[in-house]
Specification:
Elements: H1 2-14, H2 16-45, H3 48-68, H4 75-101, H5 104-110, H6 115-118, H7 123-143, H8 148-165, H9 175-201, H10 210-229, H11 235-240, H12 246-250, H13 252-276, H14 283-306, H15 311-331
Helix pairs in contact: 3-4, 3-9, 3-15, 4-7, 4-8, 8-9, 9-10, 10-13, 10-15, 13-14, 14-15
GO molecular function: transferase activity, transferring alkyl or aryl (other than methyl) groups
Pfam families: UbiA
Subcellular location: Plastid, Chloroplast membrane
Length: 335
């Protein structure tokens, strides 16, 4: 009986289909694992918190145009705008990715969990993603017949992001250049570009309406503190690679204090705009909304100070600023 079983097992193992089944299964599992690893790595490479912010902000900016022009609130209009959002997402993925490619050595110290230093994606794969983002983004603009101003603003954002991260320009090596370039890209180019493209795609002329001026000024000012706070967790790696940030020069507490003060001034300015321009803004929304966010900001800044600006607390405060900005955009169509 045992002998027969052994013969059957031996015969089974010699059968070409049965013999290859475990190998093929293992090979399929390996392929699926690699695909899954690469997909997760690509997602992390795009820096989800910034990508989510880009998606949210651009939807809300477009929503504001539709609120001001409700006759265009139709499904075919929304679907027509969808490829444009894909192009914007690809641009933001490029902004975040090109910075990581040239920051590998710094990120091994400051952010070893990022996909390149963590080994989730290779440098060659990262470069492939960068080329893909730029080429497909520009092809989408071409397919949508984007005008010269829209295309120029889109390309200007790509160029500034490249100069920010890559030698010999590498604006990020200068603290002053950083607090100019980041607000310029995310505050002016993004907001003006999206609002301009949204209006022209609907056949509307672009103009510097109070709402356009407000959101452009607010976000531009907001990203100055963001540009400062982002370095709270990175001092060790920055100092090691001779990147003299304001945090490294004047200390964590001073940077947090200055940044919180700038944000509070921004919120006070928003409340003042609603009081002095009631015909342009909904003061019943803007006043209480910005007052609540101001108090919340003070509370979180106090918690950061209590934590003595530890790395984890600083990272949490940085993420909190993105939440504040997201809430601002969510409320923008109703202001």
């Amino acid at each position: 009986m045992i002998k027969k079983a052994a013969q059957v097992d031996s015969a089974d193992s010699d059968h070409p289909v049965l013999a290859k089944a475990p190998v093929n299964s293992a090979g399929l599992d390996s392929v699926l694992h690699n695909v899954s690893r690469f997909a997760v790595g690509c997602y992390k490479f795009a820096r989800p918190y910034a990508l989510h912010q880009a998606i949210l902000s651009n939807i809300c900016l477009y929503a504001r145009v539709l609120v001001e022009n409700p006759q265009f609130f139709k499904w075919h209009v929304l679907l027509k705008a969808f490829p444009g959002y894909i192009a914007i997402i690809l641009a933001y993925a490029y902004y975040n990715g090109i910075n990581q490619i040239f920051d590998i050595d710094i990120d091994r110290v400051n952010k070893p969990y990022l996909p390149i230093p963590a080994g989730d994606i290779s440098l060659k794969e990262a470069w492939f993603l960068m080329i893909f983002d730029v080429v497909v983004g520009l092809l989408i603009l071409r397919w949508m017949n984007a005008d010269l101003i829209t295309t120029s603003l889109y390309c200007l954002g790509l160029v500034l992001a490249t100069f920010y991260s890559t030698p010999p320009f590498r604006f990020k090596a200068s603290s002053l250049a950083t607090i100019i370039v980041i607000p310029l890209i995310t505050g002016i180019i993004q907001n003006v570009g999206v609002l301009y493209a949204a209006r022209t795609s609907l056949g509307l002329p672009f103009w510097w309406s109070p709402s356009t001026v407000f959101i452009t000024a607010f976000v531009t000012v907001f990203f100055v503190p963001v540009s400062l706070i982002k370095d709270l967790t990175d001092v060790e790696g920055d100092m090691k690679h001779n990147i003299r940030t304001f945090t490294a020069m004047i200390g964590h507490r001073n940077i947090a204090f200055i940044s919180t003060g700038l944000l509070l001034v921004n919120y006070i300015g928003a409340m003042a705009a609603s009081i002095y321009m009631p015909q342009a803004f909904n003061r019943h929304v803007m006043l209480p909304f910005h007052a609540i966010l101001s108090l919340w900001l003070i509370f979180e800044a106090w918690n950061l100070d209590k934590a003595n600006y530890a790395k984890e607390a600083s990272a949490n405060f940085f993420q909190f600023l993105w939440k504040l900005l997201g809430l601002e955009f969510i409320m923008f169509p109703f202001m």
